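Model it.
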Amino acid sequence: MNYRHSFHAGGFTDVLKHVALCELMRLLTAKDKKLFVLDTHAGAGGYDLAAGSTQRTGEAQTGFLRLASASRGGMPPAFARYVTAVLAYDRKFGRPSGAKSDGAPTIRHYPGSPRLIRAALRPGDRLVACELHPQDALALKREFAGDRAVEVRQADGYKALKALLPPAERRGLILIDPPFEAADEFDRLLRALRQGLRRFATGCYAVWYPIKERHADEFVQELAALRPLMLELRLADAEPGKLTACGLAAINPPWRFEEAMREALPWVAAQLGADATARVEASMLPS
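Modeled.
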């Protein structure tokens, strides 16, 4: 499959990944120690929901935009903070986010993971964002031109794990979110993740993956040995070949992250449809 970020901006897959990412950043920056963040497959940085490939797929309409229009009264705190972060990014483009007649926010610009990370960084923290695709890497460099807290590299994110870990800060979040274009992507991801953990065992790792083929089941079984917290979001069955489920594995997540996800993800699933489901499960090795 091809999961280039621009095709899926604001879709349910981004919702799972980004609500978790925002919460991880909030909890990791609560400590008064510098933080290093590596985004191995960063994409273009931000996306216009009314243009190009993002508009063609329209996934944001049934994903983030639907969820953001829900009543704030019943919205879990972690999800509300995620919505606030998206609205703040949208405002940066000089077009204040308005509202439809039903009170729902109108949002045109959606942030990718590097923008959500950057918004949460404090003075002294830093982000290295890697993107191999030339067009997206150029867009990313323009997005962060002049920003000393962000280093953009047109590079293979898997190789960056070896080159940049362990970080000087000794505290870090590593987001691994590949486009899954290669047939052996799951194998490459596992090898890189294991190498990263050997170099930086105490780091927090967030690994996004699609659930579409039997390879995903094998991948999850391999991940179990690393004792991650597994997050999963599934939509109702759709036409054959369409992605309707995804997961995120969090290794060494901060305290209270699991609690926040157990509150937020069932609410997300309920808003996405009657047959949508969410799972939050600590991966345990057999005794």
